[in-house]
Amino acid sequence: MALDILFCDNHLLAVVKPAGMPVVPDDSGDLSLFDMARSWIEVEFDKPGRAFLGVVHRLDRPVSGVVLLARTSKAASRLTEQFREQQVTKTYIAICHGLPRQDDGKLVHWQSKDERRNRVTASASKRGNAKRAVTQFRALLCEGRKTLVELIPETGRPHQLRAAMASIDMPVLGDVKYGAPKPLPDKTIALHARELTVAHPITKKATTFSCPPPVCRWWALARQGHGRK
């Protein structure tokens, strides 16, 4: 499998994560995006040994889309701060079961995480140590009982978008953990990180990286709506 590169300079590397691949190595022992990217840098820039590569954010394993990596410790520190302070803009698209009650809006809920089950619960009111999660959504296309939605998280909680859509009875296609009726054949889910905008860690200029959804039959609806603003 070849690394799908969107952008590379002395400070940043933006790549496309395939659905089903972990961003960093995990207990499965499967090939990770981090390992692929670091191997590419070592060969492309003749850096034998272990070239520096900083992970500044992640996508869930079954999710596809844009991932940004830092090529220097300074870039890693500055980008990590942007993500922590919610100074980045992330745009996702998803195919969800069901039809929305309104075409657009803002989903606000409180998230509690079950570490043992690796799952979060979304509630309308705060309970215990629950964290507030805010997501903008917009319906782009509807076909039958499925809807293509655009999702922009204002906060960065674990599984935020998956839990948000499940909370309005519109689970992401294939996401059985959050209420989808059945998995997709490849065990991925129809959630794609389409666009990411950050301030370049050196020039400070707003820099946007984007990629279309994967080419496969359950993303056909999304490819019809790709690029709609």
Q: Notable features of this structure?
A:
229 residues; alpha+beta; Pseudouridine synthase; eleven-stranded mixed beta sheet; globular
Can you describe what's shown?
With 229 residues, the protein is α+β, with helices and mostly antiparallel strands. It has helices at 33-44, 73-84, 160-167, 220-225, and strands at residues 5-8, 12-17, 54-55, 64-70, 89-97, 104-114, 119-123, 131-143, 146-153, 191-199, 206-210. The protein has a single domain, classed as Pseudouridine synthase, CATH 3.30.2350.10. A hairpin with a 4-residue loop joins strand 6 (104-114) and strand 7 (119-123). The chain is globular and about 55 Å long. The two termini are 32 Å apart.
Give a quick precis of the structure.
The protein has 229 residues and is an alpha+beta fold. The protein is built from four helices and eleven strands.
Give the helix proportion (percent range).
Answer: 10-25%
Radius of gyration from CA coordinates: 18 Å
Question: Which class do the helix and strand fractions yield?
Answer: alpha+beta
Count of extended strands: 11
CATH class: Alpha Beta
Rounded to the nearest angstrom, the distance between the terminal CA atoms is 32 Å
CATH superfamily: Pseudouridine synthase
In N-to-C order, the SSE pattern is: EEHEEHEEEEEHEEH
The largest pleated sheet is described as: 11 strands, mixed
The CATH topology label is Pseudouridine synthase
Return the average pLDDT rounded to an integer. 93
Strand content: 25-35%
Q: Which regions are unreliable across 5 or more consecutive residues at pLDDT < 50?
A: none
Number of helices: 4
Tally of discrete structural domains: 1
